[in-house]
Design brief:
There is one protein chain. The chain has one domain (3-165): Delta-endotoxin CytB (3-Layer(aba) Sandwich), CATH 3.40.198. It is an alpha+beta fold. It is elongated. Helix 1 (20-35) packs antiparallel against helix 3. The chain is 36% helix and 49% strand. The chain has 3 helices and 5 strands; from the N terminus they run E-H-E-E-E-E-H-H. Strands 1-5-4-3-2 form a 5-stranded antiparallel β-sheet, with helices on one face.
Amino acid sequence: MPEKDTIFTSKIKYTGVFSFKDFYKFCYDWLKEETGLDLTETKYAEKIEGAQKKIDVEWTGEKKLTDYFRFDAKVIFKVEKLKETEINQGGAKIKTNDGAVEVSIKGVLVRDYEGKFETTAFKKFLRGIYEKWVIPSRIEEYKDKIATDSDKFLNQAKAYLDLEGKKE
């Protein structure tokens, strides 16, 4: 059984004008390009309530760091009261969205993700020695990287939304 340590959990909230389609693409592209995560959309639920939409999206991502370590991430979007609106930008009318979005990310460090040290009690004992005495600095290095990447993602998403809101 692989060892999983949740390293980072946080979220941002934004209410205002933004294009959900563009924001979705920005987040996906940023995570793929900047962190190298292999992302899969595990949930997409859309509920229409009158002129407004409620959208729930979940992504899971993973990236092999070494043969022993893997970075797993779970990203959740909760969008409420999303409706189409028009804004005037530079004299031109642009169709966009207005609503509230909450984005959360959970970054996890997975050790021995292939379960190579799980076959015998002796191998489990060796893994304990390996992690405690041989690679503790490497474990900390990967934990820092996961926390940094996860935090950067939320900061970039927040900056994107703040910039979008100023286009009005």
